Amino acid sequence: MATNRILIIVTNVGEYEKNGFRTGLWLGELTHFWDVAEKAGFELDIASPTGDYVPIDPESLLPGVIVMGQASRYYKDRAFMNRLRGTLKVSEVDVNRYDAIYLTGGHGTCFDFPASRDLADLIARFYESGKIVSAVCHGPAGLLNVTLSDGRSLIAGKNLTGYSWTEEVLAMRAGVIPFVLENELKKRGAHFTKAKLPMFKYVVEDGRLITGQNPTSAGAVAEAVVRQLRGGQQL
């Protein structure tokens, strides 16, 4: 039975382990998705691995970045930003309350998403319940260790995308990330593809698994999720 609700997962990690660089949620990857899904009539909840405060990647707040996709409007909305002061804990989520799950990005996800057994189990329950699993940018890091009840990796043999190695180099994060997401997805048997040019919008749908490559893809991921939940109807 449809619930008309979508669960959004965000990171709790605010800095890189190797140095003092700050990171966290890439705000636009939350707000671009939120904007599309809310306008389509869906209710949204936000959860995180620990259920604690959600840091914002400072680079996602730069003037040339935050104005894109109305992220600035959400940042100025105190009620909306208060949602990030305390989020649901993934271990306490009831899968039956939602139609889909969406994993936002930001480099912080590279640290806590793969390490959270509770998150991996939650994603598996979503998928095996016939619900949509979606992610954008570094959000697919949360898919790396998801194992289904038959012992198979969720992403083995699946077509997907995520933040590419080229984009890591251009972002000057190649030396501080804990792993190369593109390589780790491939190691687990995923069929990884990407846009011809870095930072261009790119979305891959493989049944109920929907992934976007980078921050510019978050809105398009939302559109794909909404379209599937509506039975293929165009927005």
UniProtKB/TrEMBL annotation:
Q: Which UniProt keywords apply?
A: Glutamine amidotransferase, Lyase, Stress response
Q: Which InterPro entries match?
A: Class_I_gatase-like, DJ-1/PfpI, Prot/Nucl_acid_deglycase
Gene3D superfamilies hit by this protein: 3.40.50.880
UniProt keyword Ribosomal protein, yes or no: no
The DJ-1/PfpI domain sits at: 29-227
Write out the similarity annotation: Belongs to the peptidase C56 family. HSP31-like subfamily.
Protein's name in the database: Type 1 glutamine amidotransferase domain-containing protein
| High-level lineage | Bacteria, Thermotogati, Deinococcota, Deinococci, Deinococcales
